[in-house]
Amino acid sequence: MQFIFDLDGTIVFNGKKMSTLIADELVALKEYGHDVTFASARGIRDMLPVIDERLHDVRLIGANGAVVWENQKLRRYVDIDHETFRTVTAILKDIDATYLIDGHWDYSIVGDEEHPFLPMINVLQNAKDVSVDELQFISKLLVLECGDPTPLLDQIPTLNITRHRYRDEARFDLTGENVNKRAGFQSVCAEDYIMFGNDLNDLPLFQKAVHSVMIGDFAPLFPYAKEQIQLNARTEATIVETIRSLKEKHTI
């Protein structure tokens, strides 16, 4: 069985590396014969620092589905086309935005280079902040801060682009058209899957999962969640217990 896990707020908390407790169970899940996939809004570069090194060879779906990485190699990507990129960045300039432009590995920062979110980027210091022209392709624009976003939001329906929003956060992502985590997964795997997630960008995967586990309390996921794990002192222990139960219940 395919097991898909979101990272932040699902099995990774407060931006820190996944705990040994969860990592050990995920390694055991693989050894039992199941497949593990991580699917995140983070780019691949920024997924790796929070994933246990023993799991770096699993399938990674980054940038909300724009990039697929397998066996530590680029498998597939969907970029933002050049015309759309020029249109969007012109609007971002007009609304005084600070944003991150992500390729599949290197990146470029536009705007406030002291923005408090940026220390979460390139934690392992194995990528470079380069000019846009040096990026092989553009997987994602992460808008960290801007003035009134209305001019951009009004244009999005006319552009080949997808906006990804998050609860309780002002920032948002922009990727190519029809990009989401489920599309990224299904572009390389047609098998049934079990999904663990917590936020709006996990919804497409929840909708088609054979079993889904919601971490926390997020109303849009409720109609599709088969189980819920509350955020409390036992959250990680309960996640491990749930993985263990599903590992034995579902055939390989």
Order of neighbouring strands in the sheet with most strands: 5-4-3-2-1-11-12-13
The CATH homologous superfamily of the largest domain is named HAD superfamily/HAD-like
How would you characterize the largest beta sheet? 8 strands, mixed
What characteristic shape results from the CA principal axes? globular
The arrangement of helices and strands along the chain is EHEHEEEHEEEHEEHEHEEH
Just name the CATH architecture of the largest domain.
Answer: 3-Layer(aba) Sandwich
Q: What Rg is obtained from the alpha carbons, in whole angstroms? A: 18 Å
Helix content: 25-40%
User: Regarding CATH, which class of the largest domain?
Assistant: Alpha Beta
- Subunit arrangement of the protein: single chain
Distance, first to last CA = 5 Å
Helix/strand class:
alpha/beta
- Name the poorly predicted regions: none
By DSSP (H or I, 4+ residues per run), the number of helices equals 7
As for the CATH topology of the largest domain, it is: Rossmann fold
Overall average residue pLDDT: 95
β-strand number = 13
Describe this protein's structure.
With 252 residues, the chain is α/β, with parallel strands linked by helices. The chain folds into two domains: 145 residues, HAD superfamily/HAD-like (Rossmann fold, 3-Layer(aba) Sandwich), CATH 3.40.50; 95 residues, Hypothetical Protein, Haloacid Dehalogenase-like Hydrolase, Chain: A, domain 2 (2-Layer Sandwich). It has seven helices and 13 strands. Strand 11, helix 6 and strand 12 form a beta-alpha-beta unit. Helix 1 packs parallel to helix 7. The mean pLDDT is 95. This is HAD superfamily hydrolase (TIGR01484 family).
